[in-house]
Specification:
The protein has 718 residues and is α+β, with helices and mostly antiparallel strands. 18% of the residues lie in helices and 34% in strands. It contains 13 helices and 39 strands.
């Protein structure tokens, strides 16, 4: 449907008469120069001039059968940028092809996930050779008869983007509900399948969040819908099979625009839960899953700065909460009296340990804790007779529990990975402490972890804070300051960036690159304070931490500014924009993926998806203090007439999280202002959104482009 966009390639219809030239060897290439229309944006007695505000299109404009004049101008600009990128990177096409084949060649073609047992069946996904999409399958326990629930390769035919959301099987095992997104806007249609006949039911639910929960009557589901403009999940409906969506019953509406709503089922399958959350507050309601027509009851009414999450076991709800516990604690409360006045500590708060997650079993409580920036798995019996931690060997790693759907078992399933260890799935006996490796990610082509070295370092931040860095390189690399190094960072939303294995990184390491992750403030690696000291009016700590990590790696001889590169995406793209403005001379090249760079304008516009319930992360710029602070670091607002390093920017036309116009405007302004001749290119995928391509192989074409960009700057030809 959107193929028409690719027909709009007539650059001369868009470009101003004012053009610049860029020397690229023997060719002189036209650089796209965007039109300028001054737009005054005033608040708090301050006026900003945005010459590229016109690049913003509404969803209606994007979806129109014929583009209007403004839409045409935007498409012309985006396509001109894409054409420019293709031209200036044409000499790397062979290298990109080599990299793509190399990266995808490490992926096992005919792969299968470890089966997960649930309600008498084993569920798994399976890939067949050459296919981008998975088969979703199950087998009845004790049999080898495979049922293909969803045939991804067949379902994806004819779509440039295809995403399968969550899948949920009814309690009698006979019905499947699943979500489909073919636009990449994370707006799903729910479909129903009769697993006995293999036929789709007539029921179809539009504009959903992509997941649904079955009541125990096998005919009633609860699901979320989205606000048509902001895409906020704000309503929970009840649907009875065989009825029209228009007759679905609204059971909950989240009217606070700063909150998002969701629905799930407890591990016990006894309760259906409705959750509402914002950055610093949550609220939950519960319903007996055997009483689909009952009324949801509240556990604890929302309070500012009170967060909690809920699961169920026996007569109690088990709750992870920050109530008088900055690093969170575990409490329990009787189902009949669940409010906070009745919460009893199970695992008290600890100043030096962050409680990440918990798993409930009949005989054991399993905690995922974070200490000194690393996850630890703690296993304890309910009577306290046994209490121990699993042991892990790597200096940096990720260990996490996974797919533990059964209460009545002594087997804990967990995943383990590190920068040098492929993802490994274990079954661990919590009584005997014996474990079985069920599967380790296969890296095709003779990979050996012994060929690589990982380290955990600590950089000194400007204020004296020790910032962890996870680093990996091929053995034999000398710390002589001459190595190319790619430094990755994120630092927002309390999201911890883990030292996990990525087979595509081998293409960097095997060509002499060092790869490093800066665990900067704004994440939650070092506990709750780590997050709180990298948000709101302390957000600049995120940026200075990253710069300090770069300086530290230079000082320690891992690289130098002529060979130091930075990479981040989404909120990590904001990080890239900020460090480019703050210390451009430290980097030889920067990759900003789907970057959130127009912070002030976006946070002032409550019609844009995600804006309202992110005020607790960035602040509300309608308050002058936050406006002034945001404006002081917003990448788009702080572009200056100075030299910048080479920059690659990526985005997606259908991105619902960071709208395409943010990176597009940023690139246009950088072109206008920068005083250097370094490369500035943008890849706008006209068919995808925030996550890029949907297929397991197709997504690596952009990775190949990114690596080719880096290698070209390094003079690496193959």
């Amino acid at each position: 449907m959107k193929s028409r966009y690719y027909l709009v390639l007539i650059m001369l219809l868009f470009l101003n008469s004012c053009k610049t030239k860029e020397d690229s060897g023997p060719l002189t290439i036209e650089v796209p120069i965007a039109k300028k229309f001054a737009k005054e944006l005033s608040i708090h007695g301050d006026t900003r001039i945005d010459n590229y505000f016109w690049m913003r299109l509404s969803d209606q404009q994007k979806n129109a059968s014929e583009p209007d004049a403004q839409t045409q101008d935007v498409l012309n600009y985006l396509n001109a940028e894409n054409s420019y990128l293709k031209t200036v990177m044409s000499h790397t096409e062979s290298l990109q092809d080599t990299l793509y084949k190399e990266i995808t060649g490490r992926i096992k073609q005919d792969d299968q996930s470890v089966p997960v047992k649930d309600n008498g069946y084993e569920y798994y996904t399976r890939f067949e050779e050459g296919n981008d999409y998975a088969l979703y399958c199950r087998k009845k326990n004790g049999t080898n008869l495979e049922e293909i629930l969803l045939n991804g390769p067949e379902m994806a035919k004819g779509f440039s983007y295809f995403g399968i959301g969550d899948q949920s099987v009814s309690t009698d095992n006979n019905l499947l509900v699943f979500g489909i997104d073919t636009i990449s806007r994370r707006n799903y249609t729910l479909y129903f399948k009769d697993l006995q006949t293999g036929e789709l039911l007539d029921d179809k639910l539009n504009n959903t969040g992509g997941s649904a929960v079955w009541a125990n009557d096998n005919k009633t589901i609860f699901y979320t819908t989205k606000d048509s403009q902001t895409l906020r999940q704000n309503k929970i409906f009840k649907h009875i099979l065989g009825s029209e969506q228009s007759k679905d019953v609204l059971v909950y509406e989240e009217k606070d625009e700063t909150f998002n709503s969701f629905v799930y089922k407890t591990k016990s399958k006894a309760y259906i839960m409705i959750g509402s959350s914002q950055t610093l507050s949550t609220e939950f309601r519960y319903l007996d899953a055997n009483d689909a027509n009952g009324e949801f009851k509240i556990i604890q009414p929302r309070e500012s700065n009170l967060e909690y999450s809920v699961d169920h076991f026996g007569d109690d709800f088990y709750i992870k909460t920050n109530l008088d516990a900055k690093n969170f604690k575990l409490v329990k409360t009787n189902v009949k009296n669940p409010s906070k006045a009745n919460w009893i500590d199970v695992i008290p708060h600890r100043e030096d340990v962050f409680l990440q997650d918990f798993e409930l079993f009949k005989n054991n409580l399993v905690l995922t804790e974070r200490k000194n920036g690393l996850r630890e798995i703690r296993v304890m019996t309910w009577d306290g007779a046994s209490d121990y931690y699993l042991e892990f060997k790597d200096p940096s790693y990720l260990a996490m529990t996974t797919s533990n759907l059964d209460f009545d078992t002594d087997i804990l399933r967990y995943n383990y990975t590190s920068l040098t260890t492929p993802v490994s799935t274990f079954d661990f006996n919590m009584i005997t402490k014996e474990q079985v490796l069920l599967k380790q990610q296969e890296v095709v082509g003779g990979f050996s972890s012994d060929d690589y070295t990982s380290e955990r370092l600590f950089a000194n931040a400007q204020d004296g804070t020790k910032v962890p860095i996870s680093i990996v390189y091929k053995k034999g690399v000398k710390k002589d300051g001459k190595n190319p190094l790619l430094l990755y960072g994120y630092g927002s939303y309390g999201s911890s960036q883990e030292a996990r294995f990525r087979s595509d990184i081998l293409s960097l390491l095997d060509r002499g690159f060092v790869y490093a992750i800066a665990h900067i403030r704004g994440g939650e690696e070092m506990g709750r304070d780590w997050y709180e000291n990298g948000k709101l009016l302390k957000k600049k700590n995120t940026f200075t931490d990253f710069i300090d990590c770069g300086d530290y790696l230079v000082a320690q001889g891992y690289t130098n500014p002529k060979h130091l590169y930075a990479y981040g995406g989404s909120a990590g793209g904001l990080l890239m924009g900020a460090i480019l403005n703050m210390k451009p001379e430290l980097w030889h090249g920067v990759v900003a993926a789907v970057p959130f760079v127009d912070v002030v304008s976006t946070m002032l516009d409550e019609t844009i998806p995600l804006t309202t319930f992110e005020f607790d992360e960035w602040g509300n710029p309608k308050v002058k203090e936050y406006y002034d602070y945001m404006k002081s670091y917003s990448p788009y607002d702080n572009v200056e007439a100075k030299e910048y390093p080479s920059i690659l920017v990526t985005t997606g036309f259908w991105d619902s999280q960071v709208q395409y116009w943010e990176p597009a405007k940023w690139v246009a302004k950088l072109r206008e202002m920068k005083t250097d001749d370094n490369l500035l290119i943008m890849d706008c995928n006209m068919e995808t959104g925030h996550g890029g391509a949907s297929g397991r192989f197709e997504r690596y074409k952009r990775v190949a482009l990114m690596y080719a960009f880096l290698f070209d700057l390094e003079g690496i030809k193959n």
